[in-house]
Amino acid sequence: QVHVVESGGGLVQPGGSLRLSCAASGSIFSIYAIGWYRQAPGKQRELVAFITSGGSTNYADSVKGRFTISRDNAKSTVYLQMNTLKPEDTAVYYCRLATSNEEHWGQGTQVTVSS
Predict the structure, then answer these.
(1) Exposed, middle or buried: residue 67 (CB in 10 Å: 0-12, 13-18, 19+)?
(2) Which helix (H) or strand (E) holds 64?
(3) Phi and psi at residue 93, in whole multiples of 5°?
(4) Which residues contact 68 (CB under 8 A, 6 or more apart)?
(5) Rounded CA separation 89/36 (Å)
């Protein structure tokens, strides 16, 4: 069974930075495409950043130039570096590992951007 755990969330002031981590166990990490999603109160979950098994990346327009997704297959971990944070980035952030046949979600980590 694949186990996914996000960490690194917290309270940060506008303009600040956070780095989220998503660690997985129980499978071959390198085969997965991985997405970071977020869900703010009263809103639908949205894709923030995505990295393929080959390392190609894509970002939502709202975070381009501010967020960077990366992966370390040796550590079975994917990261989301978030810079120049805005109040509208406040949400629970989730990590999703997927292939064409399966998907695995973590429980999420809260990010709050507020002064």
Answers:
(1) buried
(2) none
(3) -105, 130
(4) 49, 57, 80, 81, 83
(5) 13
Residues above pLDDT 90, as percent of the chain: 90
Would you say residue 55 has pLDDT above 90?
Answer: yes
Q: What does residue 89 show for φ and ψ, rounded to 5 degrees? A: -85, -5
84: left (phi over 0), alpha (psi -120 to 50) or beta: left
Across 26-66, the runs of DSSP E, i.e. the strands, are 33-39, 46-51, 57-59
> Phi and psi for 58 in degrees, rounded to 5?
-150, 150
Strand partners, 51: 34, 57
- The closest of 54, 60, 57 to 37, measured between CA atoms, is 60
Q: 80 with 19: CB under 8 angstroms?
A: yes
Q: d(Cα 78, Cα 17) in Å, to the nearest integer? A: 17
